[in-house]
From TrEMBL:
<dbReference type="InterPro" id="IPR013762">
    <property type="entry name" value="Integrase-like_cat_sf"/>
</dbReference>
<keyword id="KW-0238">DNA-binding</keyword>
<keyword id="KW-0233">DNA recombination</keyword>
<protein>
    <recommendedName>
        <fullName>Integrase</fullName>
    </recommendedName>
</protein>
<dbReference type="InterPro" id="IPR010998">
    <property type="entry name" value="Integrase_recombinase_N"/>
</dbReference>
<dbReference type="InterPro" id="IPR011010">
    <property type="entry name" value="DNA_brk_join_enz"/>
</dbReference>
Amino acid sequence: MAAELQHTGVVEAELLTTGAAEAAGDVEAYDRATAAVLAALDQGAEEHLADARPKKTRASYARDWELWAEFHGWLTGRTGHTLPLTAVTKGTLVAFVVWLDEMKQAAPSTIDRRITGVTVTARRHGTEVPKQATKAAREALKPMKLDPVRTARGRGKAIPATPAHLKAMNTAPAARPQPEVGRRRGTQELPELARLRDRALTTLAFGIAGRSEEVSSLDTEGITQVAEGLEVHVPSVKGRPPRDVAVAYGENPDTCPVRCWQAWKEAAALTAGPAFLPVDQKGRLGAQRLGPDGCRLVITRAAQRAGLDAKLTGHSARRGLVSTGRKRGKRAEKLRKQGGWAANSPVFWEYVDEGERWEDTATEGIGL
C-alpha cells in the first residue's frame, strides 16, 4: 500500500479498480484523490486481514472458492452463459447452497462454512456482497439443518471421552495389528516414547478441555508443576483469549494428567519449547511442534489401538470433561472457565445438559 502513495502521498483514482473505489464508501462525499486514498487503505486492510488468518483457514477458503468456480462451470452448462466468479448475488448464492446440497451431498454445517468462505474471498477480490444475498443463502439452509438425514452427512457430534476411555487407551498393548498387504499380516510396535507422548497428550487435553489447536500450542515452560498438580497456560488461538487453568493429580496413575506429563517430559528431556513433538516409528523425537491434526490423530489412533467401539476425535476430550464433570457434581461455571467457553456459548450448555441428563430425571421418584 505504501508504494501506491507516491510522492504526494496521493493515489490517482485511475490506478484503482471500480470495485476498490466503491469500497471507500460514498465517493461523491470526497474529491477523487481522497476517495482513492481511502479505497487503497480499505484494500490494504482486506489484504492484511487475509494474511493474518491461520494457514488452515486460508486453505479452507481457497477450497471454498474452487467449489464456487466448479459451481459456476455447472451453471454455465445449465444456462449456456458464463457468469463472472465475482457475481455473488442472492440468486447465485442460493443456487450454490442447493448445488452443494444436491450435487455434493454436503452437510449443512459444511455448506454454512462455505458460504462464509465464498463471501470473504469475493470481498477480497473487490466485490461488494449484498447482505440480502448471504441472508437468503442461510434462509435456504435452515430447513436443511433440521433434516436428520442431511445432518448425518457430516462427522456429527464428537463422542465425549470418559476416564474409562482414557484408561483403556493408556493401558493398551504397544503392539498393534497392521493392515494386510498381499498375504502377509504383521504388527507394529508403538515406540515407548510415542506411548508416553500419547498418554500425556490425551490426559492433558482432557484436563484442560483443550481444542486440538490449543493442545498443539502448549509450551513446556507454560506447564508448571506445583504441589497440587499442574498450572497450565493455554495460549491464545484464533483470536480467543488465553487462559490459565489448574489440573489436579488424578486418582489413577494411568489417567492422571500430572503423572503422565511428568513421564513424557522426563523421557523427551523437555526443558522449553513445544510441549508435544512428533515421534517416528523408530522412536526418534522430531524437532517441530506437533500440529493440531497430529494432536487429533494421537487421540483417534489411541482409541483404535485400545479397540474402543467409540470413534474418538480431537474434540472428544474437550466435550468429555464437561459431561463427566457435571455427572460428578462439578460446577458449570468452573468447567466453562477451564475450557475457555463464552458465557453464552450454546455448545457449552449443550454439553452441560448432556452431563445432567440422569440427574433428577422427570420420571425418577414419581411412583412409577
